Amino acid sequence: MLQIRNLHVSIDGQKILRGIDLDVQPGTVHAVMGPNGSGKSTLASVLAGRDGYEIEQGSVTYNGQDLLDMDPEIRAREGVFLAFQYPVEVPGVTTMYFMREAVNAVRKHRGEEELSAGEFLKLAREKIGPLGMEADMLKRAINEGFSGGEKKRSEIFQMAMLEPRLAVLDETDSGLDIDALKIVADGVNSLRSAERSFVVITHYQRLLNYIVPDYVHVLSEGRIELSGDKDLALELESRGYGWINDDVVPQAVAGV
Amino acid sequence: MPAIADRADVYLERFNDALARAAAEPTWLLERRKRAMERFLQLGVPSLKHEEYKYTDLSALADGQLLFATRPGSAEAALPSYVAGGASDAGPQVLGRVPQGARVQSLAEALRAEPDLVQRHLATIADYEDHALCAVNTAFFSDAVVIQAERGAVLDEPIQLVFGDGPQGSLPRVLIVAGRNSSVQVVETYAGSGAYWRNAVTEIHAEENARVDHYRAQVESLDAYHTGRLQASQQRDSYVSSFSISFGAAVARNDIGTRLNGSGCECSLDGLYAVRGDQLVDHHTSIDHAMPHCNSHQLYKGVLDDRARGVFNGKIFVRPDAQKTDAVQSNKNLLLSDQSEVNTKPQLEIDANDVRCTHGATIGQLDSEAAFYLQSRGIGANRARNLLTYAFAADALERIKVAQLKEHFESLLLNRFASQES
Questions:
Q1: Distance between CA A34 and CA B299 in Å, rounded?
Q2: What chain B residue is nearest to A50 in terms of C-alpha separation?
């Protein structure tokens, strides 16, 4: 589904990613961990198509297509979803309006019928309930005045509405208390399927107790230094990130 | 000022006609008109050299042709949906029923019914001594709408006035007197077709603990000049809000002000302007904090495209007695093109020491992070920009409490900014 090959990325001339290789197969959950400044969020941003990043080398192939060549909205319509680390407040646009517009843009792209207002509302109510949010949230401006936890749950709600094929969660767990974390994890787990893949970027192992990954990768100084299964996350939890560069010979292509 | 005297011929000629027409008016009113004419002849139509008009070229109005030789054309097509079909040519153009506890009268009716009240307030609130455009209106207006809210009357429906091509034509005049403990909402809509100059004046007198919510929706012809003055005078514990919507006219200049004459007063002066092409929209606001413990809020937002220009000047006076004043002013502008421009200037004169006055102005482009957020959900780049523009503008409309008015302008904004597919 997703192949990242030797990806080098810089921002304002400063190198952030220094040769990332990652393969994500359909139906798998990959956790990407790493210390602050290791390039985790840059990786997420590059996958979603945020401006301001210079791709110096390498390629990203998504379902056989050059992902880096697509505009952000096309990536989204093709099924790539980024749950933002810092969801943006957009005063004046209700979540309802925004999501209906987005869902219909995706449906149209897939050659499906657009949803009527009634159909949309029904779907939205179905998806929002399990996240512990009131349907009233739909009438509020996007993320405006939301608490940190509400913003993250809103991201998961949007993901549930858009039904992506590849979801990238950028530190969706940071700042969440344990109850909110469980709600978010349940939201993610309920979307797991044989066709849908996740890249879960996190600083902490805690989230991975609830979203159990198939693979764990450790990002350090712009490279994937180490890959393993879920036990690697536990090891990182007990030993910290400090030992990675010193003790371990980097493994080659991760995942598969 | 010979240049003005030469060009004022047509004003002088017309003034004699106006006086003849107004012969039946009481002496005090005729005296006020004469004084206003005198002041106008001394002041002349403000030129670009006038500090208060340095961005707003009104030279086309100097000779009076646009005022006297043209009239606003029928605005049927341009009338907002919330007034469509309701405008009447007879008398004050009031839409719908007048709510219980309110009176809406023509000048002649009001002079018969309440001569003292009219004398006390008409042409005493909006200053014409130093305000040439107000002087022109005062000298020449042919009729006025006099709105009274009775003491204690809480009016649940807005009173709607439409100034299209009706009898008040180019010189609308409105007086709103809100009695003690009353509450009234007034919506004034200005719309027309063709090239003309409309020069409107509204005065508001809010008695103790009265509440007045005033809306002016300016959707004039894009060939028109619109100059408007709204001046309020507030007694203690009263509340006045003004919302100025300015979408129309080639050149629009609004002067909106209030004097807080008693303690415990509050006022909100808000507005939204959305202009494009070669339009110019100029708002000058003035809040005079004369007494202690009064609050004022101002939020003006503007969206400017093409070569459009915006001007905002917000004056706040805090007089020596006005301790504990709390005044907040904000002007936010969104420029959609390289050639659009805004000149914004807060002007605070503070003569008291225990006050809080804040002001801020922003002129910027769309938030690219918000645009990316929308795009990352599948919404096209243009569409995202349009939605954000809509959102920026529609946010200001949240302050409008008259639902049909708010909805109308929301849908107008939607059509303008958010209807394009992409």
A1: 45
A2: B372
Quote the minimal CA–CA distance from A98 to chain B in Å.
8
State whether residue B387 sits within 8 Å of chain A by CB. yes
Give mean pLDDT in consecutive 10-residue pieces for chain A, a chain of 256 residues. 96 94 96 90 95 95 96 97 94 90 95 94 92 88 91 94 96 88 92 95 89 93 90 80 60 43
Q: Which residue out of B334, B365, B375, B377 would a mutagenesis test of the A interface target, given it has the greatest number of A Cβ atoms within 10 Å? A: B377
Q: What residues of chain A lie within 8 A of the CB of B383, using their CB?
A: 101
pLDDT of B93 reads 54
Interchain proximity A73–B392, CB inside 8 Å: no
**Are the C-beta atoms of residues A218 and A232 closer than 8 Å to each other?**
yes
- B369 and A98 within 8 Å at the Cβ level: the answer is no
Residues 6 or more apart from A123 whose CB is under 8 A from it? A103, A115, A161
Say which amino acid occupies A254: A
For residue A129, what is the DSSP state? G
> Which token pair is A24?
């994500």
Distance from CA of B409 to the nearest CA of A (A): 14
Residue B78: the pLDDT is 65
Q: What is the pTM of this model?
A: 0.81
How many Cα neighbours within 13 Å face the side chain of A141? 17
Q: Which of B373, B381, B392 sits opposite A84 (nearest CB)?
A: B373
Interchain proximity B387–A93, CB inside 8 Å: yes
Contact by Cβ (8 Å): B94, B160: yes
| Shortest CA distance from A162: residue in chain B | B377
- Binary contact (A50, B374; C-beta < 8 A): no
**Binary contact (A102, B390; C-beta < 8 A):** no
Q: Which residues of B touch A49 (CB under 8 A)?
A: 372, 375-376
CA-angle at A16, arms to A14 and A20, nearest 5°: 145
Say yes or no: B395 contacts chain A, CB-CB below 8 A: yes
Q: What is the C-alpha separation between A192 and A186, in angstroms, rounded? A: 10
Provide the pLDDT for residue B206: 98
The angle formed by the CA atoms of residues B304, B309 and B313, to the nearest 5 degrees, is: 105
ipTM: 0.93
Chain B residues 224-243 within an 8 A CB cutoff of chain A: none
Binned at pLDDT 50, 70 and 90, residue B77 comes out as: low
- E strand map for B55-158: 94-95, 102-106, 145-149
Q: Which fold has domain A2-254?
A: Rossmann fold (3.40.50)
Instruction: Check if the beta carbon of residue A62 is closer than 8 Å to that of residue A80.
Output: yes
Distance, in angstroms, between A99 CA and closest chain B CA? 8
CA A6 – CA A59 distance, rounded (Å): 7
Q: How far apart are CA B214 and CA A176, in angstroms?
A: 45
Task: Give how far A118 is from chain B: nearest CA, Å.
Answer: 20
Give residue A252's pLDDT. Answer: 43
Q: What is the pLDDT confidence band of residue B2, given thresholds at 50, 70 and 90?
A: very low
Domain ranges of chain B: 2-261, 367-422
Which positions ≥6 away from A219 have C-beta within 8 Å?
Answer: A20, A32, A33, A34, A38, A39, A40, A43, A225
Domain ranges, ordered by start, for chain A: 2-254
CA dist A15 and A38 (Å) reads: 11
